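Dear support,

I submitted the protein below through the web form. The confirmation email said the job was done, but the results page showed an empty box. After a refresh the structure appeared. I'm attaching both so you can tell me whether what I see now is the final result or a partial one.
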Amino acid sequence: MWKKVVRQVLGVAVLQVLGVALLGLALAHGEDHGEEKLFTRIAVADAKAPVVVVLNEDGKELGRFTVPSPATLYPVPGGQYVLTVHTEGNAVGFLWGGLRLEDHGDHKDVKEENPYVAATLRTGPKPIHAFVSREWVAVHHDGDGTVALFDLRRLGVEFTPRLIPTGGADHGSLAVLGEALLVGGMERGRLEAYTLGGQRVLAFPQACPGLHGQAVLGEWAAFGCADGVLLVRSQGRGLVAQKIPNPANAPQGARVGRLVAHPNQPFFVGNFGRGLAFIHPREGRMEPFPLPAPPWRSPYSIRFDPEGEALYVLTEDGKLHKIDPRAKRLVWSLEAVTPAKEGAPRVGMAVAHGVAYLTDPQKGEVVKVDLEEGKVKARFQVGGAPSGIALFQVEGVKH
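What the results page shows now:
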């Protein structure tokens, strides 16, 4: 009898030990969510047709959408949306890339879904330039000078912008610097500051003829002028401006008209004639950098990589150049797309970690470039005249 009791007790004990072990394995398995990785999709806009296509990173078409008119594309922070600006269609929109994130506390799961057009809005006449920051998207309407201001913290909940009237019809450039909206016009050649609520608070005295192009770097904003660069600095509760003139030995007609910046670098970079200009705001100087050919006249032609360690430039001879921005050194050049041709659509470029995607509208292709090796990795036929390009990118775990 006692042997039977002992066997029963030992059996229960063994089951308890096994249960604890299995529970431990289950918990361990539950904590192993898999490796987080970067998920990428590509939005491509046709230069001639009102079409936007979404591809995966291997060039497979995931969606094709009819939009109000040909679009300029801007990636939106968070990686789930792309802003579409339709100048001819008098509209702006938001394209959802289909990379949904589910927050699981210590990690995020990625759910791959079908992309779709999340919103199309008739915000004003002739929207052209847009500015995108971590919290705001601002779009200038050249037809009446109004600015559509979107709060990105509410994106997905609502897409209704705040409309801010500025100085009337003009080809405008704009930026959000802290709590100020900076707006200038090419014809007016002046820059003004507004509150984010729409109140005009300051007109800067410095002239900026042909004002065009903008970027923000920390406490600084920069705007291109025909005769230099206008810098605005956030100082306390106010704003101060200073002008950096073009270098005395600058080539005839060279000017800054497009600007980029990265928080890991202390300078702005702009186009400048047949090359670039490095604009050092703290030192108040402009440093020209020659290239074999002029940068393409495109809003997509100059890009930093995500880390800010390399600068990539598409030039009109069809080459992609990698530049070490700190050493001011050309690292390599690659024949990548069809050279510029009068009347042909502009090329586009989007840069991710170790890879760039270029558009070649003359061949109907998207070109994938390995940035580590400086080689073309693949060419995707999408048809039409692909021009604008932007990436959807999120980081998470896929089970």
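Response: this is the final, complete result; the empty box was a page-load delay. The helical segments are 2-31.
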